[in-house]
Amino acid sequence: MPRVLAIAGSDPSGGAGIQADLKSIAANGGYGMAAITALTAQNTQGVRAVHVPPAAFLTAQLDAISDDIGIDAAKIGMLGDATVIDAVRGWLEKVRPAVVVLDPVMVATSGDRLLQESAEAALQALLPLADLITPNLAELAILLKEPAAEDWAEALAQGKRLAAQTGTTVLVKGGHLQSGPSGAGQPDAGCPDALVNTAGLLGQETVVVPGERIATRNSHGTGCSLSSAMATVQARVGDWEAALREVKPWLLGALREASALDVGTGNGPVHHFHHVQDVTSSRRGQQGPAGRGSQRGHGPAEGEFAAALRAGAAGDLDAIYGLEFIRGLADGTLPEHEFAYYLRQDAIYLNGYSRVLARAAAMAPTEAEQLFWARSAQTCLEVESELHRSWLRTRPAAPILGPVTKSYVDHLLAASVSGSYGVLVAAALPCFWLYAEVGSTLHRAFLADGAPEAHPYADWLRTYADEDFAAATRQAIAHTDAAARRASDSEREAMALAFRQSSRYEVDFFDAPRLHA
């Protein structure tokens, strides 16, 4: 569990600042800590007053935490004045957590100014110490001393200028843009976000992640929540693009279901724990709250969600069948060192996968599902043990964790701490479903060739005919489909995304021996 320190101001209404940070960190699987930079008197209608305690006391808070507790990530928000910024800068230069996200809080969603203009130069000097900067469009313009962007193209251009100026990655957020049609400077009427870096840290200069625009006035603390979630997930997965693709669906759900909270008469907070509520409701066998503000629909019919997942995975299956590894495994021309690499990675993967399935068993809402996932976790460990006994024993090599294996397992572990049973089982499903389909196809091709004993991988191909695994796959599909019927619309979206990401990792896993063996 990542230990995440939020350095920010306090919002007594609970929607923004430290209060939002701690909720966001917890909702995304982290352990939250807090150092208070400023006290505000505010509610959903606006900020009434700001008090900045002495910077020396902030330093005392920061030192007390870092002297005793390891810090995996730090999120920096409202800093108030130049002395506070200097205190944070001095601490960062001394401690330097592995992940630093800086949300340059200067202007609140309500339009209230939260940073003294005299402190802007000090903030500029702090920016290069961050790994990710997350300004809103007004703050992006202030940092560049330019007018605010009026369309998506100009927002991206400003993000690139700030990235070049600071030498770090900038998250450009489309939430404050007016929605507009394609061709009007914005990719569509949605709400895109983009990671921008001109130093090659992302592998490409710009990564755009599209998203839905949620029509709600309840967006208080959205920037705080996004930045602290990014710090938390990045500490878990170690990839900014993967972090954004995980955080964005969660935040969309928090916005979509914000009205269920019924807090205040102005710009209300987002619902940080909407996905946890879904899990709680499913344990009771209910469809969630049906009263005011519920965004839960009637849900798909039985089998409908699973059919949609299968249709979406068709391209990934085609990609797998086109891989040199699969063709070589089928016809026996696969180099043995590539097969050995695949087996070693498979053994490492199964160890991590078993932990994920054990977590699914712990979260499952019914006894039947608990037993299924627990038995599946046990089977993974048994298969891993058999791999070592019968295959890897004759092909000794150091068990080096490959990059694709690491990324895939990290993705699954991230799903396991998402708080959503549905997201977890959807992420785990492709290892059943795609693997079973590929295995069945390979086995049929092997039999069509007469099952030649001279085939170097004959014993391995025969294992694909295991009817027990085929039956387990059918059960995994049914349990995932049932979870989707219990889920809210936003949770189903997150489930579909988790499934697509895992399906893509299945393709990469089969292709990894060619690239890394």
Any overview of this molecule?
It is elongated and about 80 Å long. With about 525 residues, the protein is of the alpha/beta class. Helix 16 (about 420-450) packs across helix 19 (about 490-515). The protein has a nine-stranded mixed beta sheet, sandwiched between helices. It has helices spanning about 15-25, 55-65, 80-95, 120-125, 135-145, 150-165, 220-235, 240-255, 275-285, 305-310, 315-320, 325-330, 335-365, 365-390, 405-415, 420-450, 460-465, 465-485, 490-515, and strands at about 5-10, 30-45, 45-50, 75, 100, 130-135, 170-175, 195, 205-210.
Average pLDDT: 84
Q: Please state the overall shape, judged from the principal axes of the Cα atoms.
A: elongated
Mind summarizing the main beta sheet? 9 strands, mixed
Topology order in helix (H) and strand (E) letters: EHEEHEHEHEHHEEEHHHHHHHHHHHHH
Gap from first CA to last CA: 32 Å
Secondary structure class reads alpha/beta
Radius of gyration from the alpha-carbon trace, in angstroms: 25 Å
Can you tell me the residue ranges where pLDDT is under 50 for at least 5 consecutive residues?
Answer: 180-188, 277-297
Quaternary state of this entry equals single chain
| DSSP helix fraction | 40-55%
Instruction: Give the tally of β-strands.
Output: 9
